[in-house]
Each structure stands twice: as C-alpha cells, then as structure tokens.
Amino acid sequence: MLRNEVRATLRAEVLLGLKKIGFGTGRIVGLGGHVEPGETAAEAAVREVAEESGVRVEVEDLRVGGTVTFRFPARPKWNQIVSVFVADRFSGRPEESDEIVPQWFEVDDLPFTKMWDDARLWLTRVLAGEQISMEIIFADDCETVSDARFSAVA
C-alpha cells in the first residue's frame, strides 16, 4: 500500500506491519497471506490487507509488482511463491489486528534491519514501479540470503 502526502515536498510511504503471530513473527512484513480455494492472488491480497489492517483496497486498484519465489533448503516446508501487488488507492485507517501492527514507513527509509533479509533486494524496485521475477535462496540459518536470481519482467 503506497500513500503520498503533500507537505513541503511530496513524500511516499508504504504500509507494512509488525508480525505478531505465525510465520515471520517479530519482523516487519508486507501485508498479505495465503490464497483461499477459488480466490485469485489479487483477491487474496485484498482480503488479507483488510483482515490484517482494516484498510480496504479494490482488485482493480492493484498493480502487479511481480513474483518472488522463496526457497529454504534447510526447511523446505517454508518454500513459497509470493505474488506481489502495490495499491495507490485505498480507504480506511490502518488498525492493529490479532496478526499485524500496521505502520506507515517512508519509502526512502524502510526498516530493512527489522525485515526478512530478502526485502532489501526487491522491495524498493517494486515500489519504484518495476515488475520483477525473483528467486531468493536462504542459507541454512533460514535468516540470511545465500543466493538471489533477479529478472525484470517486460
């Protein structure tokens, strides 16, 4: 979720959240989650953002940011393929849920030290408007990136 505020200068922000439970607990993460049967990835993104933060977005307001494939050789059950979306239009104010403490962050000052190690490799590209395809391979510690393969999508 991106928002622009007019002050002395134009300032872009992104809505992220502190994960309170489940996979990624204690980290700042993007909002989202699993796709339910019969749901598209975009529909799941809309539902998950509303459940996690109370913010409403519409499928037609989503911009595809690409896909990121996460591989955890030491924990293959953690492997996943994530569809990434960005929305510039939304309604509502972010509110804490059972799962997430949402917070706006300035795009030029993202909290990478509190996020998964991979975020520094792709998040700013997506927020800048690129559409990406990326594979991230985590080291045996399941914390640090050991390899990353990036390709821009035309």
From TrEMBL:
Function: Oxidized purine nucleoside triphosphate hydrolase which is a prominent sanitizer of the oxidized nucleotide pool. Catalyzes the hydrolysis of 2-oxo-dATP (2-hydroxy-dATP) into 2-oxo-dAMP. Also has a significant hydrolase activity toward 2-oxo-ATP, 8-oxo-dGTP and 8-oxo-dATP. Through the hydrolysis of oxidized purine nucleoside triphosphates, prevents their incorporation into DNA and the subsequent transversions A:T to C:G and G:C to T:A. Also catalyzes the hydrolysis of methylated purine nucleoside triphosphate preventing their integration into DNA.
This protein's name: Oxidized purine nucleoside triphosphate hydrolase
Cofactor(s) annotated in UniProt: Mg(2+)
GO molecular function: 8-oxo-7,8-dihydroguanosine triphosphate pyrophosphatase activity; dATP diphosphatase activity; metal ion binding
Coiled-coil boundaries: none
SUPFAM superfamilies: Nudix
PANTHER family: 7,8-DIHYDRO-8-OXOGUANINE TRIPHOSPHATASE, OXIDIZED PURINE NUCLEOSIDE TRIPHOSPHATE HYDROLASE
Organism: Asanoa hainanensis
